[in-house]
Amino acid sequence: QKGGNGGDAKQVSVTNYDSGTIRLGGSEDDLLAAPNGARAITIYAAGGDGGSENGAGGAGGTINVFNDGAIEMFLDVSDPADDPQRSVAGIYAHSQGGVGQPSQDNSDPGGKGEPGRPIHLQNSGSILIYAPSLTADYGAQEGSAAMFALSQGGDGGASPDKNVGGAGGGAAVDTSGAQQTIFLENDTGTIETHGHGISGMIGLARGGDGGDGNDGSGSRGGAGGRGGDVDVVMGANTSLITHGDEAYGIAGQSVGGIGGGGVASAGAGGAGGQLSLAAGAGSSIETRGDFSGA
Description:
This protein is about 0% helix and about 35% strand. The protein is built from no helices and 18 strands. It has strands at about 10-15, 20-25, 30, 40-45, 65, 70-75, 90-95, 120-125, 125-130, 145-150, 180-185, 190-195, 200-205, 230-235, 240, 250-255, 275-280, 285.
């Protein structure tokens, strides 16, 4: 190996206590959000990419966010944005594994992608996003939700002529290498969103793609990483309501990474994880817009 490994991201934890209020804009004075979106709490914990010549990536960081207070966002997003840089979100958490680099030496495989770490988001307070002027013309990026979590493994590096591509990293893998979960809970709180595509709770787990082969004899594609498990919980007597079109109440997805291709012996695709939803007695999930599944 010639390239050094990317550095690991560290754990990040944020708590908004019950006496705390995070407010963007106000009911009488909307905050101008376009073209770059708006987020009340943003955490991005990314491992570094590997160095050139088959360096492995670094792991993403574990993320914990607890909202016991109030998050209020009053946004003016009436101006279209052709290429918005950010989504509209109350809590946005993304753990990203670093990318492995290609190998040029037949004695070394492509650098492996490293995992995204587990994410835990909990709301015991209130989250309100009021952006009724947000329409499909705004084109907000993926991740518009009151609570959004994404754990994603890094892609593996390409193989040299006589070896194998690097494996893609898994999603929601802890520091011991054990498979964990992306966990979102509306514990005792309320969630309400107004605006096109602003969902309630979204949890995504995506494995990294395996590195491609190199068309040479004996070269093979790397395996894709596993998608992690996603658990979503609505506590007893809690409420979640969305008012915009294409604004889901709750959505979860776990997708394994694509196996490396480019050769006759392609890498195996990664497996998807398990999805679960638990709703306590008296809880409610309501969507009022078109094309908005609960």
